[in-house]
Structure formats: structure tokens, C-alpha cells
From TrEMBL, chain A:
Subcellular locations according to the entry: Chromosome, Centromere, Kinetochore; Nucleus
Subunit structure: Component of the CENPA-CAD complex, composed of CENPI, CENPK, CENPL, CENPO, CENPP, CENPQ, CENPR and CENPS. The CENPA-CAD complex is probably recruited on centromeres by the CENPA-NAC complex, at least composed of CENPA, CENPC, CENPH, CENPM, CENPN, CENPT and CENPU. Identified in a centromeric complex containing histones H2A, H2B, H3 and H4, and at least CENPA, CENPB, CENPC, CENPT, CENPN, HJURP, SUPT16H, SSRP1 and RSF1. Interacts (via N-terminus) with the NDC80 complex.
Matching InterPro entries: CENP-T, CENP-T/H4_C, CENP-T_N, Histone-fold
Organism the protein comes from: Equus caballus (Horse)
Domain Centromere kinetochore component CENP-T N-terminal: 1-385
PANTHER family to which the protein is assigned, alphabetical: CENTROMERE PROTEIN T (PTHR46904)
Name by which UniProt lists this protein: Centromere protein T
Protein family: Belongs to the CENP-T/CNN1 family.
Compositional bias annotation for Basic and acidic residues: 303-322
Residue span, CENP-T/Histone H4 histone fold domain: 424-521
Keywords from the named record: Cell cycle, Cell division, Centromere, Chromosome, DNA-binding, Kinetochore, Mitosis, Nucleus, Phosphoprotein
SUPFAM superfamilies named among the record's database cross-references: Histone-fold
Any one GO MF annotation of this record: DNA binding
Length: 531, 138
């Protein structure tokens, strides 16, 4: 034990610590007597530490530790005891005691023994400590070290040299040299520590070293190729929802073709991608055929881009829709927020019970168009940058537009885009919602009934869009803004005095939209998004 | 305090009741007219239902009007707000627009009259003043 006075029998970190633990009370400085007793032993073990610490900056730390200790008597002892307990203090002591072989005489060569081992636990600290403690004394370490070191001299020397060589070469060391060599290098070669304080750490535990995450760049070209191949090959497929239906409508079937091809590339955005794609296929208009290759690229490029693009694309789509004079283009923005959120969460099912059937279809539809529009419209967005960026929610309104491009994209393969393109924008979106409706009806529906549903939805959306337009005009504006949407939702009863718009946004929309919709002030009073 | 609040509530409630009664009476009168016109009878429950619905719709209208006015960043409800409120029903919208124009015209005429009046008065006053001055001079 410590009383043996020869703690140097095995001056390894482990033994040192064990000794400390054995002799001293493990946790509390509240037992001054026992701590004292233990401290005495500990003192014996590391007389040098105290001496050193008294002289060096570590005194400050010890004092702080002293403050912890309760008993006065235990102060000195406890301090030493406390010191030893923490790896930091241990390392410090070791650093202080351990000599630098390069600087000190042969005596000091022995010192690296315990030092490196103890240093191992927290090489960082040691490195720091080494930096700190370099200046103070070289002498005390030399005098004290011999007491600590003994047998492992040669071994350590060898390891040290090996380690130093490795360090010089910049190679990671083998495990052997790791333990002792690190500490020894730290202590012995001050120069090294100066130069590369953190290297030993990494060398010590190469497994723990932080490696930059390897990110494989998405191969857009390959993806596009896959997309084209699969979309060409696929017959009118079924969406996830379609699978459950005994009867499928041919008009809407195109979406899954792209849908299936997409899942592989986009993992994170898989959900969005699928949804977007599925809807996109339906909504691709003639002008977006060019953009379709861009779509997958966009999906993969990153969600962040999507979001920003969406905001732009929404506005673009909206403008484009207006340009086309399609009233449908102005999707009811009122629903966008609520429904978008829900749809984007993929909780299409949950939406149904929440709102009327008209709401749900609009919501899911809106979500998809929004997502879809982002990518299809991305290329357009760049061109149309000059347009007023209507806020994302209002711009998200564009559903029929984005729906068009997708559907128009696929038809060209099978049919002529001409007459269909005109009808499709109006029909494809509604048919999608009608399908949803029939799905949730859980019973077969007649075609006429579905047509009636489509008609109702059509009128409903028209009304909403007209309302939005009137609201904007009422406020003397030409652009629909979130305030108009909020007014609309208030009239619908979705936004009440108890439930505000922000609450709905938080409840239903994904985080990215929420960031865009709910302005929050960061430090420095910079509000995002800038109004 | 609490008693006052209770009394106030009672007051409000009774006020509401009176309003409801007034609406009910008016609805009854209108229904009678329609009954005479179309030769159809209205049951009491129907009239009561209609009056209840009317009352609630009035509340909604008031809230909507306030929202519209606030949306246009105004603190006063305008005819524009009313027109926005009535946009759903075409005939009603037309009617309201016509009335609005009538009122606007009337206001203009009134303003013109007032202007004339004030001008005449001014002239008279100035003439009198001049006359007075002249007289005084003389």
C-alpha cells in the first residue's frame, strides 16, 4: 500500500489510481478524518504533487478544491487527496513530476514512466497542463520524479522514442506506444506539446478521433437517368392509396411511376419526394416538362433549397397561374397552412376527420403541390425572380398549377398533350382529391358521385380563391398575403380567438415552414424571416 | 364587484333578450307579409327558428365587419366592408351597391348645398361687413 513507501513498484496510472482509491475516501471531503488518514497516505505517495502544486498554478485549483473540503485539518490532506482523485490533478501532478527526457538529465528519463500512464486518462488536460506547467519548474520534477519511476524505464524509453518518432513523422502510433508514449511525449517533449497539443489524443484513441462525416454527393445524373428509365418503363401505377382501392382511375395513375423511381435517391426527403413526385406527376404542365429533370435534382439537392424554392416557386406558380387565367391556380390559401402541415406530415388520414372532405383533399393536394411546385418551379423561379415573393403560405396556394406539370409530363408519352393539357390542370387535381374522398368513404362510389364531389370541390376552391382575391383587394393590395389567409381561416372558423394562426402553424406544419411563417427575433434584434 | 358583475351580466342578458325579441317581432312581420304574398303559412316554430338564425348571423356579421375593417387597417366600419360582407349573394350585393351609390350621391348633393350655403353666407357677411365699413366711413 502507500505506506510501503515504495509506490513506485508499478508506477502505472492504474496502480496510482488504485492506491489513491484504496487509501483515500472515495467521494466526500466531508469526512476529514478519514480523508486525513487517506490523505496522509496519499501524501506519502505523492509528496511531489503537493510540492509542485504549491508552486504552480495548480494551487489555484487546489484552493478551489479546498473550498470544497469541510474539515480544516483535512484541508491540506484533503486537498492532496482531492487532487489525486481527479484525473486532471493526477495528470497535473504527473506532468509536474515527470521530467522531460530531452531537457533533464538521465534521472528525468525515469520520470516519464508514471507520468505517461497517468496522462493517458486525460491527455487533453495534460497537454493543456503541459502548456501551462512547462514554464514553472523543471527542477522539482527532476527531483521528484525518481521517486515515482522505477522499473519501467527502459520500456518507456523505448516507447517514448518510438512515439516521438511517430509524432515526428506524423503517423499514428501503435497501441503499445500509445499509453506510455503519449504521456511521455507530452511530458518529455515540450516542443511537441506546443506544436501538436491534440495529436496525442487522436493518436491515443484513433477510434474516437473525429472524422469529417463522409457524405456522398448525390449523383444527379444517375438519378435522372433512373427516373427516366423507370418512368418510361412503368405502366400507370398505383399510389399508395390506390392500392387499397378496388377500382383505380386511370387519370391519376401516373404519379406513382415517378414515385417509385424516386424512393432510392432521397432518403431523408423520401417522404417529401414521394409525395411531391406523386403529385408532381399529376401536375406537371407542358411548360414544366423541361423542369422535370430538374425536379429530382432539386429533391436531392437539399430540403433547405426546396423550402426557399418553394416560397419562390409558389409565387411563381401563382403568377403563372394568374397569367394563364386559370382561377383554379389560386388554391385556397386558407387551407394551405392547416392542411399543408398535415399533409406534409404525411398524416393524410388524420386530416380527414379533422376537416370536411373538401378540406382534406385540398390540404393533401395543397401539400403535394407545394412540395411539387418547389422542385418543378425551381427552374422557373430563377427566371421569375422579379415577382413579388408572396409569403410561402399564400404562395403555396398554387396547387392546380403544379399538378398540371406532372400530369402533362407523363401524358406526352402516352397521349398528345394538346387537349388534355387544357383539361388536365382542372381535372387532375380534383380527381386526386376525389380519389382521396372515395378512399376515405370506405365503400365503393359511383363515378357520378365522384364527379359531383369534384364539382363541389371545384366550386369550393373557386370560392376560396375569390375570397382571397377580394380580401387582398379590400386591403388595397394586389398580392395575397398571409393576413388575407388568416382572415379567410378566421371566417372558416379555423382560427379563433382561442386558436391563433401561429398555433395552427406550429401544430400542423413541419419545422421548415414554421420557420418561414412565424417570424422570430434572433439576437441582435434581427428578425427572421425579414419582413 | 362581483355583485356588480352579476348585475351587469343580468343587464346584458336582458338586453340581449330584448334584442332577440325585437328581431323576432320583425321577422314575424316579414314572414306575415311573405305569407300573404305567396299564400303560404308560417308556423311559429319556423318564425322562431328564422329569428334565432338571424340573430346569430347578425353577430357573425358584426364580427366579420370588424375583421374586415381591421384588415383594411381602419378603425371604422365602412361601406366597403359591408359590400365585402355581402359579396356572396349577387342580388344583395347589387342592392347594397345601388344603395351605396344613392347615399354617396345624396351626400355629394348635400355637400354641394352646404357649400353654396356657406358661400352665400360668406358673401352676405362680407357684404354686410363692407356695408358696415362703408357706413362707418360715411
Amino acid at each position: 500500500m502507500a505506506d510501503s513507501g515504495s509506490p513506485d513498484s508499478e508506477p502505472t496510472t492504474r496502480t496510482l489510481l488504485r492506491r489513491v482509491l484504496d487509501t483515500a475516501d472515495p467521494s466526500t471531503p466531508r469526512r476529514p478524518r478519514s480523508a486525513r488518514a487517506g490523505a496522509q497516505r496519499a501524501l506519502l505517495e505523492t509528496p511531489s504533487s503537493r510540492r509542485l502544486s504549491s508552486q504552480t498554478k495548480t494551487t489555484a485549483r487546489r484552493r478551489s478544491q479546498r473550498i470544497r473540503s469541510i474539515g480544516k485539518l483535512a484541508h491540506v490532506q484533503a486537498s492532496g487527496y482531492l487532487e489525486e482523485q481527479t484525473p486532471r490533478t493526477l495528470l497535473k501532478n504527473i506532468l509536474l513530476t515527470a521530467p522531460e527526457s530531452s531537457i533533464v538529465m538521465p534521472k528525468s528519463v525515469v520520470k516519464p514512466g508514471p507520468a505517461p500512464q497517468v496522462v493517458q486518462p486525460s491527455s487533453r488536460e495534460s497537454s493543456r497542463g503541459s502548456l501551462e506547467l512547462q514554464l514553472p519548474e523543471l527542477e522539482p520534477p527532476t527531483t521528484l520524479a525518481p521517486g515515482l519511476l522505477a522499473p519501467g524505464r527502459r520500456k518507456q524509453r523505448l516507447r517514448l522514442s518510438v512515439f516521438q518518432e511517430g509524432m515526428d513523422k506524423g503517423l499514428p502510433l501503435s497501441q503499445e506506444s500509445r499509453g506510455n508514449a503519449d504521456a511521455s511525449s507530452l511530458t518529455s517533449s515540450l516542443n511537441l506539446t506546443f506544436a501538436t497539443p491534440l495529436q496525442p489524443q487522436s493518436v491515443q484513441r484513433p477510434g474516437l478521433a473525429r472524422r469529417p462525416p463522409t457524405r456522398r454527393a448525390v449523383d444527379v445524373g444517375a438519378f435522372l437517368q433512373d427516373l427516366r428509365d423507370t418512368s418510361l418503363a412503368l405502366a400507370p401505377p398505383d399510389t399508395v392509396l390506390e392500392d387499397t382501392q378496388p377500382f383505380s382511375q386511370p387519370l391519376v395513375g401516373r404519379s406513382p411511376s415517378v414515385h417509385h423511381s424516386l424512393p432510392c435517391p432521397s432518403h431523408s426527403g423520401a417522404e417529401d419526394a414521394e409525395r411531391a413526385v406523386s403529385h408532381r406527376t399529376r401536375s406537371t404542365g407542358p411548360r414544366l416538362q423541361n423542369n422535370s429533370p430538374g425536379k429530382p435534382a432539386q429533391l436531392l439537392a437539399g430540403k433547405a433549397e426546396e423550402r426557399t424554392e418553394k416560397s419562390l416557386s409558389m409565387s411563381k406558380v401563382k403568377e403563372a397561374a394568374r397569367a394563364r387565367g386559370s382561377a383554379r391556380a389560386q388554391e385556397p390559401e386558407g387551407h394551405t397552412q392547416v392542411t399543408e402541415a398535415e399533409g406534409s406530415q404525411g398524416a393524410i388520414e388524420t386530416k380527414e376527420p379533422e376537416g370536411s372532405s373538401g378540406d382534406c383533399p385540398t390540404s393533401s393536394r395543397r401539400v403535394s403541390p407545394e412540395l411539387a411546385s418547389s422542385t418543378p418551379e425551381f427552374l422557373q423561379a430563377k427566371r421569375i425572380q422579379g415577382l413579388e415573393p408572396a409569403p410561402p403560405p399564400s404562395t403555396a396556394v398554387l396547387p392546380s398549377e403544379p399538378l398540371e406539370p406532372l400530369s402533362a409530363r407523363l401524358p406526352p408519352r402516352a397521349r398528345t398533350p394538346g387537349p388534355k393539357a387544357c383539361q388536365n390542370p382542372y381535372k387532375t387535381g380534383l380527381s386526386h382529391y376525389a380519389k382521396l374522398f372515395s378512399f376515405y368513404a370506405k365503400m365503393p362510389m359511383e363515378k357520378k358521385a365522384l364527379e359531383m364531389v369534384e364539382k363541389c370541390l371545384d366550386k369550393y376552391f373557386q370560392h376560396l380563391c375569390d375570397d382571397l382575391e377580394m380580401f387582398a383587394a379590400h386591403a388595397g393590395r394586389k398580392t395575397v398575403r398571409p393576413e388575407d389567409l388568416e382572415l379567410l381561416m378566421r371566417r372558416q372558423g379555423l382560427v379563433t380567438d382561442q386558436v391563433s394562426l401561429h398555433v395552427l402553424v406550429e401544430r400542423h406544419l413541419p419545422l421548415e415552414y414554421r420557420q418561414l411563417l412565424i417570424p422570430c427575433a434572433f439576437s441582435g434584434n434581427s428578425v427572421f424571416p425579414a419582413q | 364587484m362581483e355583485e356588480d358583475d352579476g348585475a351587469e351580466e343580468q343587464q346584458r342578458f336582458s338586453y340581449r333578450q330584448r334584442l332577440k325579441a325585437a328581431v323576432h317581432y320583425t321577422v314575424g312581420c316579414l314572414c306575415e307579409e311573405v305569407a300573404l304574398d305567396k299564400e303560404i303559412q308560417f308556423s311559429k316554430q319556423a318564425i322562431a327558428a328564422i329569428s334565432e338564425v338571424t340573430f346569430r348571423q347578425c353577430e357573425n356579421f358584426a364580427k366579420d365587419l370588424e375583421m374586415f375593417a381591421r384588415h383594411a387597417k381602419r378603425s371604422t366600419i365602412n361601406t366597403e366592408d359591408v359590400k365585402l360582407l355581402a359579396r356572396r349573394s349577387n342580388s344583395l350585393l347589387k342592392y347594397i351597391t345601388e344603395k351605396n351609390e344613392e347615399i354617396a350621391q345624396f351626400n355629394l348633393e348635400r355637400k354641394a348645398k352646404k357649400k353654396k350655403k356657406s358661400e352665400d353666407e360668406n358673401k352676405n357677411s362680407t357684404e354686410q361687413a363692407e356695408a358696415g365699413v362703408v357706413e362707418s366711413e360715411n
